[in-house]
Amino acid sequence: MRKCVNCGRYTLRQDKCPVCGSEVRVPHPPRFSPEDKYVKYRIKAKEASQDQG
Ligand SMILES: [Zn+2]
């Protein structure tokens, strides 16, 4: 999967964008953070559900 640097369209082509013919590059995925803000909330929700058991 590549992304056009010009129009931002994703394509499977590796040479150029099929839409505008511009250069395509591999989009960098967002860096995964081990300190997920929502982990705390997930754990709390899990504990709460167990209390109801
Ligand atoms: Zn394009």
Question: What does the model show?
Answer:
Helices cover 30% and strands 13% of the residues. The chain is an alpha+beta fold and 53 residues long. A three-stranded antiparallel β-sheet has the order 2-1-3, with no helix packed on it. β1 and β2 (10-11) form a beta hairpin. Bound molecules: zinc ion. Residues 4, 6-7, 9, 17, 19-20, 22 line the site of zinc ion.
Tell me the layout of helices and strands.
Layout lengths: L1 E3 L5 E2 L12 E2 L11 H16 L1
Antiparallel strand pairs: 1-2, 1-3
Summarize the structure.
The protein has 53 residues and is of the alpha+beta class.
Offer a few descriptive terms.
3 strands, three-stranded antiparallel beta sheet, 53 residues, alpha+beta, 1 helix, rod-shaped, binds zinc ion
Widest sheet: strand ordering:
2-1-3
What molecules are bound to this protein?
zinc ion
Largest sheet: 3 strands, antiparallel
> How far from one another are the termini?
45 Å
